[in-house]
Amino acid sequence: MALPSTYADRNCSLARALEVVGERWTLLIVRDAFYGVRRFGDFATQLGIPRASLTTRLKALVEEGVFERDVDGYTLTPKGIALWPTVRALMAWGDVHYSPAGVKRALRHDADGGLLDAQGRCEQCGSLVEVPETRIEPGPGFQPTVTDPDLVSQAMNQPRRLLDPIKL
Amino acid sequence: MALPSTYADRNCSLARALEVVGERWTLLIVRDAFYGVRRFGDFATQLGIPRASLTTRLKALVEEGVFERDVDGYTLTPKGIALWPTVRALMAWGDVHYSPAGVKRALRHDADGGLLDAQGRCEQCGSLVEVPETRIEPGPGFQPTVTDPDLVSQAMNQPRRLLDPIKL
DNA sequence: GCAGCGTGGTTCAGTGAATGAACCGGGACG
DNA sequence: CGTCCCGGTTCATTCACTGAACCACGCTGC
Prior knowledge:
two-stranded antiparallel sheet, WH_DNA-bd_sf (chains A, B), DNA-binding (chains A, B), WH-like_DNA-bd_sf (chains A, B), DNA-binding, transcription regulation (chains A, B)
């Protein structure tokens, strides 16, 4: 976002956060990382983002400590994983206001299959579900593609646990 | 954000949400509205946003039903108020990772003064606190300004309830 | 050895959006 | 009638995003 770090915004952690993850594409990159995407090319094709933009974003995110580079690509750090409540809140807002048929992706506690409420609590066992214990799967608002998509998309549209790397 | 609404992102409510509130400045405008800002000029001076950009943003947000125009300016609709969990999550992330001295703004249940936890629950009475019942006040990470700021900033830096209009 | 290919980028010209400063017009006030 | 406040608009400049082409490296098969 490159906000000019103004005096006025010194006391706003929202502005500070948006300087890091407020730029176009950034939260979508983070979302794909939660889905298990790790490789440069997979981010590029999944998001349809220009490769130059992706380079810029990933570099900035690595510098900020949201991602780290390792042998098989870019993975979320704990700081990046801490963005999950934000991603979840925005997804929920989008579901409620733009998906009349119901949520496009449902979140469940992988251990017992209980749905997660707005606070991220399992309706089955009542516990706060950690990110790696969260299963994501197509919900009632999900619209299946007619033409079968690429392998990465196929993997992302199967029920799977967050952060589980996509391996083909 | 004006994402090109691609086939690939049809099934992502996060992308849909970011089309509405993902543009630069948008969430900061929403934040100021939670703080009670309602007038065009106040948004402009508080955020330091170019007036032309502010016009564009507010127009888009009114069209999307996030704000509504009324006699005393722009106020959040229920759809806009529903963005509070997102704003709170991002603020919390910014506080944790960029404000070592502690949160810049603390959130309390106005009725009993209990602090809110990460899920928005009052630690005093255990209830989920609604937005208008939330009090926001400077926290330990807050850095007071030396030169006394404008009246609107002064009002925003006092403990106050969310959505309470700023009147001078 | 080398031709092909997958992967992870970089380069660069074109374009559209953000910026900021100046300007405008209506209403309230005196 | 003049002035100020308020909520914008206009416009030239600058900036960042875009998209397509290109590049470098390592691996595989022949």
